[in-house]
Structures are given as C-alpha cells and as structure tokens.
Amino acid sequence: LPPEQFHLTTQTVTIEGDDAHHLARVMRAEIGDKVICSNGVDREVLVRIAELDKGRVTAEIVEELTMDAEAAVQVWIAQSLPKGDKMEVIIQKGTEIGAARFLPFLSDRTIVQYDAKKEAKRSERWQKIAKEAAEQAHRNRVPQVESVHSWKQLLQRAKEADVAWICYEKEDGQQLRPAIQQALAQGKLGPGQQVVIAVGPEGGFTEQEIVQAEEAGFQSVSLGSRILRTETAAMVGLTCLFYETGE
Ligand code: SAM
C-alpha cells in the first residue's frame, strides 16, 4: 500500500482507496479474514479484518512479519521507451523477477512520439502496474518507476551505480555472464549495491551512443548471438544476473 493508504498505529491498519475496494469487492474478504499488508518500503504485518466497507477497511495487527523477498543487489532497468504497451510488460515482468527501479529514457532511435503532457497519467499507470506486480510476487518493496529521462540524464544517473551495463547486440567481445562473474569477484554485486542494465529501442542503439555510454562508465555487453526484442532483452539480462548472484 502507498504510505498515504497505510496508516499504521501499533494496533491497527486502515486501508483506503483502490486497495480497500479490491479487498472488499474483488477478493470478497470478510470480517475475521487475515491478510498481509506491506507499506511497500520496509514493513509487513499480518492483520485480521475488523471492519469492512468498500471505501475503507480497518484491521487489527496480529503479527509483524520478517519475510524478505527482495534481492540484495538493486537492479535498475534503464529502458529506451518502446512502442505500444511494451513498457507496461517490462515493468510487470521486471517487477516479478526482482528489479528495484525502472528508468525509461529517450535515445536516437526511439520510435514512439514522446508526449510530455501525457507523462503524469502514464507515470501513475506505470507505478500502479509495479505495485500490483509487487503484490502478486509477494515482494516487500514496490519498485520505483522514474520519469522519462533524456539520453544525457541517463548517462548522468548511471554514474550513481556500482555497475552499469549497456546491452548491445553488435558487441562481439564481452558477454554478460563473464561480466557478471567479474563484478561479483570485485564485490560490486553485494547488498544495497546498484546495477544498471540499459536496453535500446526497437531500432537499437547507434554506435555513437555506445561510445558515449562507455565514456560515461557503461560496459557494453552481449546477451548472446540471437537478436532479442527490446522487451525480451531486459528480462534476459535481469534473469541472468539473479541466476549468477543466486537470487
Ligand atoms: N536494431 C537491431 C537489429 O535489428 O539488428 C536490434 C535491436 S534489439 C530489437 C533492441 C535492444 O535489445 C537492443 O538495443 C539491445 O539493447 C537489446 N538486445 C537485443 N538482442 C541483444 C543481444 N543479443 N545482445 C545484447 N543486446 C541485445
């Protein structure tokens, strides 16, 4: 639940808005049912429903929970804005797999017309998709979906990370797996460390973008000899990373 819908006192939780509606009308919860509530940041509790109506649900805290479904390493998916609803799929699947943050950006060959006026509505929708996927995956934290960055802003942001990989289908030297193993050996994939995996648009990155990314600290990596769709590449990168780190 977003913090404004999660009023935690020592004894009770009040659930409002869409979540209250979902519990009462969709899940058909009843008084006495137990559900797990998370504030999406750092606290999970088992609660028993005490009062129920579609606008507001009040529940008593039964137990503090300590389960942790989060990956130790924080992975950001930096995704060049794709066509149609692919960004939604990337956010949904990436959240299930364990990404910590999504950073959409614009690059030279981005096909979609970016309309800043629609940004607020779209951001809200993307964040909602992340929240629902996090709930479905029983994650403790909801990944943050950032606003759409320019290419320059992305290069700047990536400097905050401990490791930054840019997926480039023409990379014929560095494969992702040995790059992960090297970063592991260098102690760069530990708890709280940040990794960026950048994926290009349908038309790919330009050579110039790859040069600029490398100058900004990215390592260009190949995901293998087959060309993946943009929405597949991020999932492959994320899954390979968690396979190697054991998460
Ligand atoms: N324009 C390219 C082409 O047609 O040859 C394909 C671009 S691909 C559909 C979209 C993005 O997915 C790329 O920019 C890259 O980031 C990533 N990608 C796809 N396959 C990859 C691979 N084998 N290795 C590394 N990155 C890959």
UniProtKB/TrEMBL annotation:
> GO molecular function terms here?
methyltransferase activity
Q: Which CDD domains match?
A: RsmE-like (cd18084)
Q: What is its EC number?
A: 2.1.1.193
Q: What keywords were assigned to this record?
A: Cytoplasm, Methyltransferase, rRNA processing, S-adenosyl-L-methionine, Transferase
Residue ranges annotated as coiled coil are none
Annotated catalysed reactions = uridine(1498) in 16S rRNA + S-adenosyl-L-methionine = N(3)-methyluridine(1498) in 16S rRNA + S-adenosyl-L-homocysteine + H(+)
Q: Which InterPro entries match?
A: Alpha/beta_knot_MTases, PUA-like_sf, RsmE, RsmE_MTase_dom, RsmE_PUA-like, tRNA_m1G_MTases_N
Indicate the principal place this protein occupies in or around the cell: cytoplasm
What functional role does this protein have? Specifically methylates the N3 position of the uracil ring of uridine 1498 (m3U1498) in 16S rRNA. Acts on the fully assembled 30S ribosomal subunit.
Q: What is this protein called?
A: Ribosomal RNA small subunit methyltransferase E
Q: Which organism is it from?
A: Paenibacillus marchantiophytorum
